[in-house]
Amino acid sequence: MTALTLSTAAVPGLRADAIVIGVAKGANGPLVAPGAEAVDSAYDGGLAGVLETLGASGAEGEVTKVPAPSGFKAPLVVAVGLGSEPEDGEGWDAEALRQAAGSAARALAGSKKAAFALPLTEAADTGAVAEGVLLGAYSFDAYKDRGGDARGKKKGKGPLAEAALLGAKPRDNAHRAAVERATAVAEELNRARDLINTPPNDLDPEAFAAIAQAAAEEHGIKVQVLDEKALAKGGYGGILGVGAGSAAGPRLVKLSYTPSGATKTLAFVGKGITYDSGGISLKPAGHNETMKCDMSGAAAVFAAVVAAARLGLGVNVTGWLALAENMPSGSATRPGDVLRMYSGKTVEVLNTDAEGRLVLADALWAASEEEPDAIVDVATLTGAMMLALGNRTYGIMANDDAFRAAVHEAAEEVGEPAWPMPLPEHLRKGMDSPTADIANMGERMGGGLVAGLFLREFVGEGIAWAHLDIAGPAFNEGGPFGYTPKGGTGSAVRTLVRLAELAAEGELG
Ligand code: BES
Ligand code: MN
Ligand code: ZN
After folding, report:
1. Which of 56, 205, 227, 288 could serve as a FRET partner for 211 with CA atoms 20 to 30 Å apart?
2. In 7-82, where does DSSP find H-type helix?
3. What's the pLDDT score for residue 383?
4. Residue with CA at minimum distance from ligand 1 atom 8
5. For ligand 1, what atom is nearest to the CA of residue 444?
């Protein structure tokens, strides 16, 4: 990953491949943002005019490259759009800084060193830029150019190697702490992206569990892995039913971060379908090519628990990874089968492609048995949620209005677009089954909400619970933007970490 430093070096003499500056959208054209005064004066105060000539407006996401002025050691100036200037007395929007830093880092892939001369006043600004750089510089090339060219040289560009943040007060504890937080969160988030992007032939439930086990032990997190045998013994009919068709057996991984003195406990539950073919209710071609992403919820939970431990947050955090591969075969669960779930309830499986709710149901009940203060599950659960909210926004459902609002606020704070969705009672009867306690499918209309209502049945009485359906934002099939790469995005990681921070500060519920 990109190495980050805080620097007070003066720009003209700085050795780097590029200087990154901010451009804001002014009423009469682009404006050079604070932090880049020295760069602007080297253009005799005419940088805004130069940028305007090149077509720059200061809009978010915009990247404009200009040759550096003479006398500069760095050859290039990269101007990134920050959107509108803040109102008088307000700071720069953290998300605008994060996105701009991400766009710049991505535009500088293959470079050795860039200096970021962006407006950094508060420690929060420094944290946002640090996070944006580390997330924007991400690339997944584990499966590319392995042998390199004839001389054995790697062909891929590779990420920006080093970023120096200028003006970020290297001796100020708050700024340093902000960089440390950003580093821990971004490293774990990027690891979640790696897991999501890893092809399903290399990441089955056993492999995922082994990676989680190794990482957790490294960070003092307790790990417990239930394999097929242990799941059968424990009566985890949902997870076993989904994994029954695959040659690779399912797993339930429990990660426990329990710092001494912590009084609150959060449980995070992640859907970890390492590949979703649909099972016997097989998905048609065109709907299965990206289904390696169906473990994004489990990857997010894993990343958040490790990040909480690395940050030393004063809250107990338990992560539950419900891992299975959903495949058709002679041993697969059939539409019409009835599963006895870990909670004791029976479920008639009408569609084996509605598998996420089955593995989550067992993990939610297992999490509930420990009576945490709150449970948050994360899942690429329904295509319906993508139809409702598009592919950048996740849906939040909950059994408690205040908790749903708290999750939404946390998401907004960290720059993850999310929106509250209802759990309309009338949709429950669509899941009535003539044979079992409930069916795994209901009305087609409102399919995302129906899935949420199904999950609610497996949450213990009196526990605040929220369900994040990240089917839209988990995997970016389009081009990269801001700090979001193509492929696995790491959606919901930062919301979960923020919730853990709030709980540690006694500010959650
Ligand atoms: N993993 C899918 C949902 C999904 C679709 C995630 C597209 C990301 C992109 C989930 O298991 C699924 O297949 N859901 C079905 C449920 C239906 C059968 C009730 C769906 O949404 O169509
Ligand atoms: Mn499915
Ligand atoms: Zn699925």
Report:
1. 288
2. 37-42, 47-53
3. 98
4. 471
5. 19
pLDDT for res 146: 55
248: tokens are 């690779």
| Distance (Å) from CA 276 to ligand 3 centroid | 5
Contact yes or no for 251/229 (Cβ under 8 A): no
- 354 CB within 6 A, ligand 1: yes
Beta bridge partners of 487: 476
Cα separation of 22 and 80, whole Å? 5
Question: Which whole number is the average pLDDT over 25-37?
Answer: 95
The model's pTM: 0.97
Q: Which atom belonging to ligand 1 lies closest to the Cα atom of 474?
A: 8
CA of 252 to the centre of ligand 1 (A): 21
Q: From the CA of 447, how far away is ligand 3's center (Å)?
A: 13
pLDDT (0 to 100) of residue 170 = 79
Whether 14 lines ligand 1, by a CB cut-off of 6 Å, is no
- Which pLDDT does position 154 carry in this prediction? 62
Q: Which of 91, 92, 107 is nearest to 163 (CA)?
A: 107
Q: What are phi and psi of 398, to 5 degrees?
A: -160, 165
- pLDDT, mean over the chain: 96
20 lines ligand 1 (CB under 6 A): no
The string of pLDDT tens digits covering residues 349-373 is 999 999 999 999 999 999 999 999 9
Could you give the residue numbers annotated as active site? 283, 357
CA gap 246, 279 in Å, rounded: 9
Question: Which domains, from first to last, does the chain contain?
Answer: 3-167 (3.40.220.10), 186-504 (3.40.630.10)
Would you give the DSSP letter of residue 167? T
- CB distance 441 to ligand 1 below 6 Å: yes
Q: Is 119 exposed, middle or buried (0-12, 13-18, 19+ CB in 10 A)?
A: buried
Which segments of 203-315 are extended strands (E)? 222-226, 251-257, 265-276
Q: How far apart are CA 405 and CA 198, in angstroms?
A: 34
Minimum CA distance residue for ligand 1 atom 9: 471
Q: Give yes or no for residue 382 CB within 6 A of ligand 1.
A: yes
Q: Could you give the 3-state DSSP secondary structure of residue 80?
A: strand
Is residue 287 scored above 70 in pLDDT?
yes
3-state secondary structure of 299: helix
Q: What is the pLDDT of residues 412-445, one digit of tens each?
A: 999 999 999 999 999 999 999 999 999 999 999 9
